[in-house]
Automatic annotation (TrEMBL):
It comes from Nocardioides luti. One of its GO terms (cellular component) is cytosol. The middle region has homology to RecA with ATPase motifs including the RadA KNRFG motif, while the C-terminus is homologous to Lon protease. Plays a role in repairing double-strand DNA breaks, probably involving stabilizing or processing branched DNA or blocked replication forks. DNA-dependent ATPase involved in processing of recombination intermediates, plays a role in repairing DNA breaks. Stimulates the branch migration of RecA-mediated strand transfer reactions, allowing the 3' invading strand to extend heteroduplex DNA faster. Binds ssDNA in the presence of ADP but not other nucleotides, has ATPase activity that is stimulated by ssDNA and various branched DNA structures, but inhibited by SSB. Does not have RecA's homology-searching function. This is DNA repair protein RadA. PANTHER family: DNA REPAIR PROTEIN RADA, DNA REPAIR PROTEIN RADA-LIKE PROTEIN.
Length: 480
């Protein structure tokens, strides 16, 4: 005899399943969220089709052409703009500016005589109207509704017949007759499936705002990210006005693009050239600073790294970083001590970036090393220098991706010298090779010590050009 399947129990918060009831979910650790799942549905029978199947060559692509959202930086991330019938999920931390961005997109779409419906479940209609007045987003083709019921939202879609639908947010909309509270696994699945079904059948672009958990991942079931066409993450520091949109999934374009925005009290503005936000304009040479070239998607950005090194009286000196990976900074410090003779075990080290930039890729290692060495010896690097390169544990410099694009961006911004890693296969004993790109001189060096010597930010043994350090820091001067 066939065994009767055991009743399954599912967590209403995260969807975790178990064969028996438990008081606490084994996945999200929520109490009282495990309930008996519904019985499996019977096998579906054949039913009439909505549209007959046709050869793929006869399928029209005009209905799925890109349409500009009115925000160029968002179009860059989406791969060209909004696609009719597409479902887009925008997630981000509370207060980062998701509603402000999408209200601007809705207003720009309405400005081009495309009817737009903005459904808010977190705020009242008057609150959204106040934001629209502040940002200049009041238009006749922009319709606003404050609803938390899925049936009411579908009725608004039938009456308004919009080209763009914005739902703020998916976790606040609930479906009647479905178990669970709004924001739960079952509710989010049903609401998302209904809205996506309307988007596909009516050729409406649907943009859903989603919440994130404490670790920054999208809240709700993982299936939500699978059923939508585009997943965007809105990132930004609360202490900075700079915001970035990243594409984590995109069925219509690349996923390695980022969009830059400036969030202010007047609204959100696209930043087409964000490099100036991360580079300080010093009047002269300043010790402890160096400019790195990092890649945000396919866009090169210049960011300044600053370092401060002071003698410490504590048994365990401090190592503080801001905007940099602390483990990589610790690795660079170890390389400087082992291969460059710069001992900082008795000093407090502080390293940060300018303007709230986050440098996580290894290409910024050389800039961190130059800033630390410059701060240690009080010797500033020449003005107009950029560095890029990954530092290995043996002290060598490794090539980084998209090096020509980085060099071209630094040359466009008026820098005079770029220090880059040496090409693989060249002898380390050869002098640095030099070439020119758009008036900027480029030098390749084999290792970190050669870069520090080239920029003259270290004090070599027997060097009489510079006086000794002003304080007894206990540095071991690098040997020539």
């Amino acid at each position: 005899m066939a065994k009767t399947p055991r009743p399954a129990f599912r967590c209403t918060e995260c969807g975790w399943e178990t064969g028996k009831w438990v008081g606490r979910c084994g996945e999200c650790q929520a109490w009282g969220s495990v309930a008996e799942a519904a019985a499996p549905a019977v096998r579906a029978a054949a039913s009439p089709v909505t549209r007959p199947a046709v050869p793929i060559g006869q399928v029209s692509v005009e209905d799925s052409s890109f349409r500009s959202s009115g925000v160029p930086e968002l179009d860059r991330v989406l791969g060209g703009g909004l696609v009719p019938g597409a479902a887009i999920l925008l997630a981000g931390e509370p207060g980062v500016g998701k509603s402000t961005l999408l209200l601007e997109v809705a207003a720009q779409t309405a400005r081009y005589q495309h009817r737009t419906l903005y459904v808010t479940g977190e705020e009242s209609a008057s609150q959204v109207r106040l934001r629209a007045d502040r940002t200049g987003g009041v238009h006749d083709e922009l319709y606003l509704a404050a609803e938390t019921d899925l049936g009411a939202v579908l009725t608004h879609i039938e009456e308004v017949r919009p080209t763009l639908l914005v739902v703020d947010s998916i976790q606040t909309i609930g479906a009647s007759g479905i178990d669970g509270v709004p924001g739960g696994v079952t509710q989010v699945k049903e609401v998302a499936a209904a809205l996506i079904r309307v988007a596909k059948t009516r050729n409406i672009t649907v943009v859903l705002i989603g919440h994130v958990t404490k670790d920054g991942s999208i809240a709700g079931p993982r299936v939500l990210e699978h059923v939508v066409d585009v997943v965007l993450h809105f990132e930004g520091d609360r202490n900075s006005r700079f915001r970035m949109v990243r594409a984590m999934k995109n069925r219509f374009g690349p996923i390695d693009e980022v969009g830059c925005f400036d969030l202010s009290s007047e609204g959100i503005v696209a930043v087409t050239d964000p490099t100036g936000l991360f580079v300080e304009n010093h009047h002269g040479r300043v010790a402890g600073t160096c400019v790195a070239v990092t890649m945000e998607g396919r866009r090169p950005l210049l960011a300044e790294v600053q370092a401060l090194v002071t003698p410490s009286s504590a048994e365990r000196p401090r190592r503080t970083t801001s905007g940099l990976d602390g483990s990589r900074v610790a690795m660079v410090l170890a390389v400087l001590q082992q291969h460059c003779g710069i001992r900082l075990h008795a000093h407090d080290v502080f390293a940060s970036t300018v303007g709230g930039a986050r440098l996580n890729e290894p290409a910024s290692d050389l800039a961190v090393a130059v800033a630390l060495a410059s701060a240690t010896f009080g010797m500033a690097a020449p003005v107009g220098v950029v560095t890029m390169g990954e530092i290995g544990l043996a002290g060598e410099l490794r090539r980084v991706r998209d090096l020509p694009q980085r060099i071209a961006e630094a040359a466009r911004l008026g820098f005079q010298l770029a220090v880059v890693p040496q090409e693989p296969g060249r002898s380390r004993s050869r002098s640095p090779e030099s070439w020119t790109v758009d008036g900027m001189r480029v030098l390749d060096v084999p290792d970190v010590m050669a870069a520090l010597r080239l920029l003259k930010v270290v004090r070599l043994k027997g060097d009489a050009q510079h006086p000794p350090p002003p304080t007894d820091g206990g540095y071991l001067r690098p040997v020539d």
